[in-house]
Amino acid sequence: MHLTKKKTKNYIGLILTMIFMLLLSACQSAETSTGSGAGGSKKDAPIKIGILEDQSGDFSLVGIQKLHAAQLAVEEINNNGGLLGRQVEIVAPDTQSDNKRFQEMARKVILEDQVDVVMGGFSSASREAIRPIMEKNKMLYFYNNQYEGGVASKYSFNTGAIPDHQIGTLMEAVIKKYGPKVYTIAADYNFGQISADWVRTETERLGGEIVGEEFIPLGVSQFASTISRIKAADPDVLVTLLVGQEQSSFYGQWAKSGNTKLPMATTVNMAQAYEHKRFDPPSLANMYVTVTFMEELGDILPSAKEFVDKFYKKFPDDKYVGMEAETQYTGVMLWAEAVEKAGTTEVEAVIDALETGISYDGPAGTAKIDPATHHAVRNVYLAYADKEHKITFPQQWEAVVPDWLSKEKGVDLTKKDEFKQYTPLD
Amino acid sequence: MSKGLVEKSDAILTLKGVGKHFGGLKAVDNIDLSIKKGELHCLIGPNGAGKSTIFKMIMGVYEPTVGEVFYNGKNITKMKNWDRANLGLSIKMQVPGVFGELSVYDNMRISAQKHMKSSERDEEIDNLLRFLDIIHLKYEIVNNLSHGQQQWLEIGMSLASKPELLLLDEPAAGMGPTETEFTAELVQKLNREGVTILFIDHDMDFVRKIAEKVTVLHLGKKFAEGTIEEIEANQDVVDIYLGNS
Amino acid sequence: MRNLKMKLNTENVIGIGLFLFLFIYPLFVTPYQILNLSYFISMVFLTLSLSLIWGYGGIFSFGQAAFFGVGGYFYAIFTMNSGISTITPIGLLLGVLVGGLVAGIIGYFMFYGGINDVFVGLITLCITVSLETFMAQTAGSQWKIGTVGLGGYNGINGIPTISLGSFALADVNFYYFILIVLLVVYIGLRLFVVSRFGYTAIAIRENRERTKLLGYNVPRFQTLIFALGGALASLSGILYATWGGYMTPSAAGLTAATLPVVLAAAGGRKNLTAAMIFTFIYYWFSQTLSASGNEYALVILGAALILVILFVPEGIIVSLFKLGDNLFFNRKKATQVKAEGEFT
Predict the structure, then answer these.
(1) What ipTM does the predicted assembly reach?
(2) CB neighbours of C184 closer than 8 A, spacing ≥ 6?
(3) Structure pTM?
(4) pLDDT tens-digit readout, B167-214
(5) How far apart are the C-alpha atoms of A308 and A301, rounded to whole Å?
(6) What is the CATH number of the domain that holds B4?
(7) Using the beta-carbon criterion (under 8 Å), do C294 and A28 form an inter-chain contact?
(8) Contact (CB<8Å) A94/C141
């Protein structure tokens, strides 16, 4: 069969493509991967933490902060003699903001890398994708991230901010200062719906009134009609529970055609994806957010400043040290405390140790595990951005206890094992 | 639409008052046409006369704006084109409708498998390919065939359904003299075996050689009808050909 | 049916080799790797569904992921409502049928309405996006079917695996189960494409109008093959759900819908074996990159896929098959006829 000119070109192209693909796969940078299973005597073998965070994709803005925070924590532990006399190693595959990837990598770190604990996940969907895998494999799992609350699971410890911490406090502050009429716009999925529900409950408890409530599908980026409705309702406070890059375009549009004197309140923005630095003022003017930490806390809290400084020292190219970076750092430290207390990394023993109410004095003050709910007792700070996006902290609450699960749902994981997520949307 | 009176002749195809209007343009304007069973009938006329449009209305590619089409007495004006093909109508279009990336065998098979049992199919395909004198090309990719060979293949595909009425739109187009000769013999052979043939062509030698009856179309209307000798003797017909460039 | 004798060509040799390899694979790997490959296999059906309707039928659909979701969600809701593990195989069969039925209904409205080509892609795209958006907001507990909450964006977890009788399939057993299903489906599809249905599909792909004039009721056939594609995609979703125990709107959404299109195009959509093999290669490759923690994994994959489509538009695996044929199988018969029933 004689080869025509076109066919020759195709064959050459084919071979070149294959060589290129092989070259690419060969020059992956194995940043922090450690490869296969545990070997050697248990005494000297390193302790392994599986970190499942999104290093690429939609959620990488926060994912990379969390990975770096874990790396910082582990470096400190190792420099202080390690954990139980052993060095700590991180196994960190890239979950690519993809729930399927989370499932694959969760199985990999548990079964193949045989880690001693898994930490990670940003979106609730990713957490719910892997929580059953953790439970099935009896693997200890730390979800060090803000979320909508409600997870009651023997093997899960959720150290991040939840509505118990953020919403009651937030609404208390803004209603007191500005008035009772509240308009809510929220992302139309679990987190947004549940948070909006909490906002309603708290507002009404404080004698306020929801004058408008709108749910925006994820991925929507045009808010013209929403903005006119907000103006028409004339609220005292605008609560925004918007998630994702597209939905954050609301702020620019609001600044142009909205009423920038109207105070906004959120539990989501600024502390994680640092919108106040990425968007031009006055997009986020007059915005309040209740946080467990954000970089600017270093202005008023020495332990926070110390944390931010050492973070940038290790990662000088990073852009921001956000709330979840601190949550992850503290989460690792809490776990390390529990391991020291238990004297082993064995999961059941560490859980028992955690359930004694382990606490750690971290960058944002003391964080303590609440034994009954496996969530964290933490300080909460009210952050405020003025029209130049300068951050101040007008109010703080100490040791806020996340007791919705125990009070409303009767959850006590020290007495009875459970493996589910409760929601208030009943 | 009312069924209308069926003519009691041996007409296999009847067009009554058929017209096709594209907006203001009347591509076909009130045609009455009757093709008798077993006829070898030719449609001629200058370009734009509406010949291909009529074919498309017969096969169901277009629906007539006005008028009705009858096949063996049955009103098929609104019938779907595949149902018409299954009634015994078959067409070879002006642009070869063969499957260029496939082999000759595959092309034939696609047509044949619809109309015969799989046990008979391959033998029948061979018969047809022999009839068309392209059996030696059975496994060739159709794009590699000459234009003439592709036309014959398409005729073969039209024949696989054992049609009663075969429409041929320019069967000798782009063919040299030998190929045209072969095509003419082919068409006559088919007609002798009982297939009614209605064809369009511009090559007068070809038409003269085989047409029994000729209908001349002009500007969407029937202009003249008769044997080829009558048509060629008709001065008006000559004029419309010369007058239109 | 006398053309069923298997040809000796690169495609078949590699196909047989692949299945042999897959069957003995568990003997020399870790349980994790077996589990992993099960996941890859579950996703092969999705690419096959697109190869069938697009590569053979000429129907470009952006909606296969939606049927994936229909299957997965149906299975989850059906089996979790009943609570009996023995009903899971029935759940699987019903889910496949439901997926096919939904696709058939959508296909009916499209093809009998005369919609084709790029518009099918657009409509299926819209369906995918609407479904994903709708499912994402079903977070509240009013969104329940029977006792099973739809879970909104968090999806449904705790989906039971397949049980044969009282024997729940897990690990190696699950792997062989899913592998046998793949073998059966693969052989079925290979037979399908050389049958008269396969020929009809290809005719429709090549020239719809001509095929109508040859006597084929084209819209009916398109609807049927689209339904079959939907059933296959649904099977993929169910097997994924039983593998991972989890189903979420993002697995059936826009991003998920794009991947099979790219895989089918890059591997060679007109060849089932090529589509299958490329799916394995892609999933293995992308997972290796992801596991290494390389931040540029997605970029590398995107670049590789673009290169493939630029240089080898008929598909890289198909081109390799042809190369193999030229080097090994056709040399002797350089001028001889090609065997029957082979589509280029």
Answers:
(1) 0.86
(2) none
(3) 0.86
(4) 999 988 888 888 899 999 999 999 998 899 999 988 888 888 888 899
(5) 11
(6) 3.40.50.300
(7) yes
(8) no
